[in-house]
């Protein structure tokens, strides 16, 4: 009985996170804001729902599967979010007009897709020659 | 009580969020919006499968959820890679 209440609570929290994330996916004005909503809130919500499943069955194989799914989601969501955001920046996706800071502006080479920065971290060739 | 709550409250809420995401999938102004919403749609499918496995008391549905998690990641990575390479000039 107590366990049922805990499962209801956890599953409701996860579903609320997923619902809020989908509302954000509709309402957000910009691609990058939509992306941040999807990557963060949805992953947390699915993790909660999966935890509820593990609590309901209380068997080792099910818990192992649930842990594998959660681990895989936590591992892949940031990677795919980064790749998609990078692609969107390269294809010239416009930022929202209320965005106040774009730190990557003019730092990516549009043709070769190589990141350059103003700060020169690499040592000069002259110094390397002197040390050798 | 748990089964009824999940069947009549949680699954409709998840379905509503799926419909909202599918609206974004249909009207998304760029291809990349559609990629993100497709990824999210598959994630909602994983959550629905998890809740449905509680409702029907069959734990073997979770295998399908695991495969879906793998496929969603691969699809997103492949689509973003090709979309990026399309605008690139050597």
Task: Describe this protein's structure.
The complex is a heterodimer of chains A (132) and B (90). Chain A has 132 residues and is mostly helical. Chain A folds into two domains: 90 residues; 27 residues, no CATH class. In chain A, 69% of the residues lie in helices and 0% in strands. Chain A has four helices and no strands. The relative contact order of chain A is 0.10. Chain B has 90 residues and is mostly helical. Chain B is built from three helices and no strands. In chain B, helix 1 packs antiparallel against helix 2. Chain B is elongated, with a radius of gyration of 16 Å. The mean pLDDT of chain B is 89. Chains A and B meet through helix 1, helix 2 and helix 3 of A and helix 1, helix 2 and helix 3 of B.
Relevant terms:
heterodimer; A: 132 residues; mainly alpha; 2 domains; B: 90 residues; 3 helices; 87% helix
The biggest beta sheet of chain B reads: none
In N-to-C order, the SSE pattern of chain A is: HHHH
> What's the tally of helices of chain B?
3
First CA to last CA of chain A: what distance?
74 Å
Largest interface: A-B, 53 and 51 residues
Identify low-pLDDT runs of chain B.
Answer: none
The number of helical runs of chain A is 4
Radius of gyration of chain B: 16 Å
Order of helices and strands of chain B: HHH
- Derived from helix and strand composition plus strand pairing, the structural class of chain A reads mainly alpha
Beta fraction of chain B: under 5%
Low confidence ranges of chain A: none
**Oligomeric organization of the protein chains:** heterodimer
Please report which band the strand proportion of chain A falls in: under 5%, 5-15%, 15-25%, 25-35%, 35-45% or over 45%.
under 5%
What portion of residues of chain A is helical?
55-70%
End-to-end separation of chain B: 62 Å
